[in-house]
Amino acid sequence: MKMKPLAYSIILITNICFIHPSFAEQNTIDTVQDNNSPETLPVINLKAQESTSNLSKKTQTGVLGNKSILDTPFSITVVDSSDIEKRGADTVGQIFINDPAVYSQSAAKATNWWGTSVRGLGVKNFYIDGMPMSLNWGGDYPAEFADSVTVLKGLTGFMYGFGSPGGAISYQLKRAKENPETDITVGYRNPTLFNVLVDHSDHVDAIDMDYRVTLGGEKGEAYNGSDQNRFIASLALDKKISDNLTWKANISYEDKKTEHEPPIFSLSKLTDGLPKATYDYDKLIVDNSFYKTKLFTANTAINWQFDPDWSLDYQVGYTRKLQQSNLVFNYLTNTSGDYTGSLYQFAYLEKSFINQIVLAGNFSTGSVKHELNTGLGYTNSTVQNSNYYWNGSLTADGYIGNIFENQNYIITHPKDYSLKPKSSDISQSYAFISDTLNFNDKFQAILGARYTYYDSEDLDYNPASNSGYSTKATTPTFALIYKPTKNSTTYLSYVESLENGGIVGSTYKNAGEVLDATISKQYELGLKYDANLFSATAAIFKIQRAATITDANNYLSQDGITNYNGIELNTNFKPASKLKIGAGMMYMDAEIDKVSASNIALIGNRPAGVAKWTGTLNGEYLIDSIAGLSLHGNVRYNGDSYTANTNTVEIPSYILVNGGLAYQFNLGGHDATLNANMNNILNKKYWASSGTWASIGEGRNGVVSLNVKW
């Protein structure tokens, strides 16, 4: 019944567009003005995109500088804002739905509590225009601010510094357009969730500065029973101070509150399997639960092109994220759907600062041409939190239930979000250098190294123990690139990444123990090909990472190595002028190895949350009979995985089917686009999980938006 308002909206808007000839006959991308008839509206002719991919797109790849995806010795996927808007993508998982290597268990309009994984490894490295930010848990960055979103797969230690080996996700923010323009977008998601976004770009003649400002909001009830209340704002500034000196700055802000969303489920107590998933969200939610976030980011950079071949960039960035939780977490106990529930209350404030200078230039030594990037930087991140309140079903604030029955629990425990003194203060000082050696038009080599000094202060306020930790390491990279033709690249690369071991949490028997930092390694052999009608990328990779294991006595330790051996393939094909088809797959042979005698039973097991197979299929078709109309869709297969390293309980595989339409037309002399999408068309019921913790899947839901340009 909840789908009816959505269906009515789609029918109403599409009929308005299709019935009136002025809409159907003047569909646009390229505008041709009839100079002999000034009152004639522009005639807009829809053209299919000539290229099947964006491998030729330039992207900022960390310390390697600005290179095309085709010329980088790593696996990279870039998704543009036009594609995000067309598909109504709301989460990182939806943005990269067509990339089998990227996975997020979070559904739309639910808190992305556990973040994103790439090639089976969690991602902790997120960036805005190259500036690091803390987004690995507790929510996604607003996609409305991004001109494109990039995922760099595999180890990122050399590219971006200390972090996780899974990869990096980078948001390239929208800049001012060449000509003044205002976009207004209104949207609807069933049953009663509405949003509006104003995007204005212009130039201030008095100070010769370009700017772009975005304001938006969202309010109402989503398909999963949650209430959404969100406000977003961003500002981008660009100024050319002189012929060789430019300045830019960005500010973004989000204030978001999600009320009574479906809870997260722990699978740690299950022994026989999972219960069937259910989309009776009303039976799962706790009415007065909520999660609030306030995110603020600011960064500025100045570029000095002091020579035709040399430039100097200075960057400063700041991120502040406040989170307040009044959520519940449920522990499933059997296949019948019984669970015990816990209340989780806390406040968490993280502030990050970065200061970086980069020198980039080109020079030659004999017949060899060099592209040099080198720099210095410093980052600092501090955390303040409130007293954490976490309890189980045996306490007054715990509860029990079943996923197929109504839950009447109401949170009564008083909230205390007052922040204590700093609980974490981590700094990194680093230096890096990379040199791309061009021997000729076909052969290149990349040599690089990054030195990092990592320091975590002793802030447990316990004089009897020292929780401080510091380490330093140099992580190298090496790559060979061979270009048989201008539009093809083969490469072999090796890279290392330094990862923080961390302090063992309070739920383990060895709580407070400091784990050593570890170095992960990645080997990759790849191929990239980009032609107008066909493009493909393929990679064979091996990642070695120190394993972290919880033993039978609940001790957390670093024991053994986890090997991730994989094959990744993505293709795009344009068999006809109106049709584009894409497909992708990833095979992952991951296993635990070289553990101590006490964990010998884990040797050969698959690490928790890692699927062997993932596959995608997508397509887009332009309708000849209705000018301006295109249809698109995708199918994604997520393979089975395990809840724990013991490989006793399996998380079933599932297939999702999504589809939509885009209709470009003329509305009162203005370019307009209608986008309508349906997620999980077949309403497949599934559990989405990265291991021990899982979410109920995303039930069938739809979203409609109308964009008008002035």
What does this structure look like?
The protein is mostly beta strands. It is built from five helices and 41 strands. It has a 22-stranded antiparallel beta barrel. A five-stranded mixed β-sheet has the order 5-11-12-9-10. A three-stranded antiparallel β-sheet has the order 6-7-8. Strand 9 (125-128) and strand 10 (131-133) form a beta hairpin. The chain is globular.
Offer a quick outline of the entry.
This protein is mostly beta strands and 710 residues long.
Helix content: under 10%
Give a count of the beta strands, DSSP E runs of length 2 or more.
Answer: 41
Rg, alpha carbons: 26 Å
Whole-number mean pLDDT = 86
CATH class group: Mainly Beta
Provide the β-strand percentage band. Answer: over 45%
Number of DSSP helical runs: 5
Distance from first to last alpha carbon: 37 Å
Strand count, sense and closure of the main sheet? 22 strands, antiparallel, barrel
Structural class by helix and strand composition:
mainly beta
- The CATH superfamily turns out to be TonB-dependent receptor, beta-barrel domain
